[in-house]
Structure formats: structure tokens, C-alpha cells
Amino acid sequence: MTPDVHPLALLIASVFTNNILLSLFLGMCSFISISKDLKASNGLGMAVTLVLTITTLINWMVYRWIILPFKLVYLRYIVFIIVIAAIVQVLEMVIERVSPTLYRSLGIFLPLITVNCAIMGVSLFMQLRNYDLLQSAFFGAGSGLGWWLAIVLLAAIRQRIEKNPIPAGLKGAGITLITIGIIGMAFLGFAGMLKTQ
Is residue 153, in this structure, part of any structural domain at all? Predict the structure, then answer.
């Protein structure tokens, strides 16, 4: 049974109220590491959004049309990871060809999108919440846009913070985690506007 959630509401909720990064804390490692540079954050945000949208759609199709009919539910994790790895590999080759500068600035974090728990989490939530194809597409795109918005916000704030005096005990990870907490609380301010689960 498909939940009665309008796809547009699901998109908005995935960006703001149920942000995969700020409310569920999935995908934090690359979020914290790359957010030192605004350009790299923007590039990684685009890449994660693209991967999330495509893999959610493909994983929905694979799950509904192959895994369920052939009663292979016990293989869903492996299959989802294979789909994610294939999409990321193709995206990595395209970025290397189109923008070598972005490819170098993303470094090891581009292939690590494969093991970004936000990507796998969205595919699993899509399956567990029993979304239809359109809902899954909007959920994947919204989750990607929410991740992108969060990393660009953090990168912009970190650039501003670098130019200001910070107490020695808060420099680096301390001020970054405090900033993430404040951004997370700001996004929680949208909670209750839309119910998606």
C-alpha cells in the first residue's frame, strides 16, 4: 500500500523538514570534510543530488520489477549498493571529462559517494515507506537538494567564520559542529509543516 503523500509535499519535506543530513545525520563524513571550500561543496552537492535522484529511481525499479517478483528480498542491500556504485562510476568519469578542476577538488570524496550512507538510506527509506515511482523520484531529488543546500550553507558559513577571531578551543571541528547544530535547529523549525511518514 502506497502512503497518501503528494509527491510535491514529499519533495519539500525532503529538503527542509526531513532533511536526510540534518534530521537523520546520514552522509556526515563528506559533508564535514568537503564543506571547507564553497566551490567543491557546490560540486559535491550537485553530484550527490544527481546520484540520489537516479539511484532512487533505478533501485525502485529493480526492487519492484526484479527483487520482489523473484522473492530475492534478502539480496536488496547488495543490489542497491551495486546500482549506486555503477551510477557513481559513470558520474565520476563524466566529471573527470567535463571539469577536471572539480574532479581534483573533490578528490577521494567523489568515489566515496558510493558508500555515502545518505544514498543507501534514501533507497532503503523509499522501499520501507512503500513509495510509488513518482514519490520515489521526488523523495530522491528532494533528499539530494536538501543535502546540497546543507553543504553549501555550511561551506558559506565556514568561509565567513575563517575571517573572524575564534577562541582557540573552538577552532576547527568544534566551531564546525556547533554551526551544524545551529543549521540543524533552523531546519527543525520547519518540522510539523508537512507530514510525510
Answer: yes
**Could you tell me if residue 90 is inside a domain?**
yes
- CA atoms of 61 and 68, how far apart (whole Å): 10
Q: Identify the residue whose cell numbers are 573533490.
A: 106
Domain that holds residue 74: 7-188
pLDDT of amino acid 59:
96
User: Rounded mean pLDDT of 127-150?
Assistant: 95
Query: Is 45 a domain residue?
Result: yes
Cell representation of residue 173: 571541528
pLDDT level of residue 52 (50, 70, 90 thresholds): very high
Q: How far apart are CA 127 and CA 63, in angstroms?
A: 8
The tally of domains found in the chain comes to: 1
For 81-94, write each residue's pLDDT tens digit: 999 999 999 988 99
Rounded to whole angstroms, the maximal C-alpha distance in the chain is: 61
State which amino acid sits at residue 140: G
Contact 144, 137 (CB under 8 A): no
On the CB side of 65, CA atoms within 13 Å amount to 8
CA pair distance 171, 107, nearest whole angstrom: 24
Q: Assess if residue 123 is contained within a domain.
A: yes
pLDDT over 80 (residue 2):
no
C-alpha cell at 129: 515507506
Asked whether the beta carbons of 22 and 105 are under 8 A apart, the reply is no
